[in-house]
Amino acid sequence: MKQVVEPSMVAHLWAHQMQDYARNSGGNFYFHDEHIYSYGSHFRCGSVVRNQNGETAYLVTDRTYSVTTSQHMNHVRNAIPAYRTVFTTDRFVEIRDDKLTEHSYLQAIYYIVDRVEHIDELTYKQKRARRCDYIGDIEDELREISRWIEFWGLDSRQRSDNGERLTPVIPLMLSHRWIDRDRCWRTCQYDQYATPHHTDKFQYQALLQLIVDMGLLKQSSTARSREALSEFCARWTNDADVAARSVVLERLMRAAEMKRNKARLQAFEQKVVKWRRGEICSLSVPDFYRSNAVLRVRDQKVETSLGITVEAAEAERIWKLMRRYHERKAEFRHDVIRDASDHPWTINSFENDVMKAGCHKLHFDDMAYAATELGLAV
User: Fold this and answer.
1) Residue 301 sits in which domain range?
2) Whose CA is closest to 95, among 84, 87, 107, 85?
3) How far apart are CA 216 and CA 214, in angstroms?
4) CA neighbours within 13 Å on the CB side: how many for 11?
5) Residue where one domain finishes, among candidates 88, 123, 154
6) Whether residue 340 is found in the same domain as residue 365
7) Which of 244, 277, 302, 372 has the smallest CB count inside 10 Å?
């Protein structure tokens, strides 16, 4: 396979682990095995990791660096298949011989500390808020902690790769023994020179205790209802008005978001027209859109806004298949799309007129547009 490819393909090859190495022509965006980098090993954009059960997840950094690195990060995020497990963190956790290393065990704990610290920030933002609402962000952080614990098996006893006993993390983090508090809440982070920096975060132990006492780490939706999270904010910030204001904030935020999205949708649709005409070179699909990519036809080939090209014959085959799913004349079956470079993209689902193939989510209306341009539909 080619080792010098477009930036979007570098990320695609990494995300799907299709080869051991690839880079862009400038050499500032590349991957080795499971790690992908921007400008050098000092900035790891992401890693593909596996847990003790062989399940795969992606650790994507939350650091920022430069404008170019931000573009590289967009390629990384867009390349990850929609159905995969993703954690946004600069912490790195790995297993050896199907077991956590002691270093990774501590990094896994520090990830939880990072999330708890962010929850503290969000609760006080909610306390001060008059036009913004942070309840949904708090719920996301709690959900991430639960997913993280489940993925790495941190809620059960296990052994490290060298045979040391690793206890469940939540009881350990809530322990009042000095040695346990120092181990869990005096976090360590490394800079680009691999120099460790320790930060004391003992003050967040009480917040984690409140989270556990209120049952907010449970997976059920009722455990993290808006009412429960509003009460949580009120108790942590010692402000009873937080819960009452959250009702008003939710209504204001919903109305403002609908108004904002309507204007943003109109502006984006104008950009799509220009992109299809070739007036602009690239197109970034906003989060609120119905899919994460759109299509255009150039030189009798179908191109996606994520930089993938499909030959007309392959596009025709997929169009006929999707049209049958759309008209409910056939039940969905997994298939593979091969792009112009003969790279395979697995079709994972077709639900609510959205096809998920690899890292792409494409709406049926966009496929219909491309089919019309190719003369396949009228």
Assistant:
1) 290-373
2) 107
3) 6
4) 25
5) 88
6) yes
7) 277
CA diameter of the chain? 73
What pLDDT does 220 receive? 65
Residue type, 237: T
Q: Average pLDDT of 156-167?
A: 92
Percent of the chain surpassing pLDDT 70:
93
Beta carbons within 10 angstroms of residue 64's beta carbon: 10
Please list, residue by residue across 163-198, b when 16 or more beta carbons sit within 10 angstroms of its beta carbon and e when fewer do.
eeebeebbebbbeeeeebbeebbebeeeeeeeeeee
Task: Produce one character per residue of 241-270: b if its CB has 16 or more CB atoms within 10 Å, e if not.
Answer: ebbebbeebeeebeeeeeeeeeeeeeebee
Q: pLDDT tens for residues 234-246?
A: 889 988 777 666 6
Cβ–Cβ < 8 Å for 43, 21: no
Buried b (16+ CB within 10 A) or exposed e, 208-237: beebeebebbeeeeeebeeeebbbbbbbbb
CB 81 within 8 A of CB 14: no
Three-state secondary structure call for residue 100: strand
Amino acid at 355: M
Say which residues have a Cβ less than 8 Å from residue 264's Cβ, sequence separation at least 6.
286, 288
- Cα 103 from Cα 49, distance rounded (Å): 15
State phi, psi for 42 to the nearest 5 degrees.
-75, -20
Give me the number of domains the chain comprises: 3
For the chain, the straight-line distance linking the first and the last C-alpha, in angstroms and rounded, comes to: 38
pLDDT in tens, 259-295: 777 888 888 999 999 999 999 887 888 888 889 999 9
Q: Could you tell me which residue, 265 or 255, shows the higher pLDDT?
A: 265
63/253 Cα distance (integer angstroms): 28
Q: Where are the alpha helices (DSSP H) in 21-99?
A: 67-79
d(CA 91, CA 260): 34
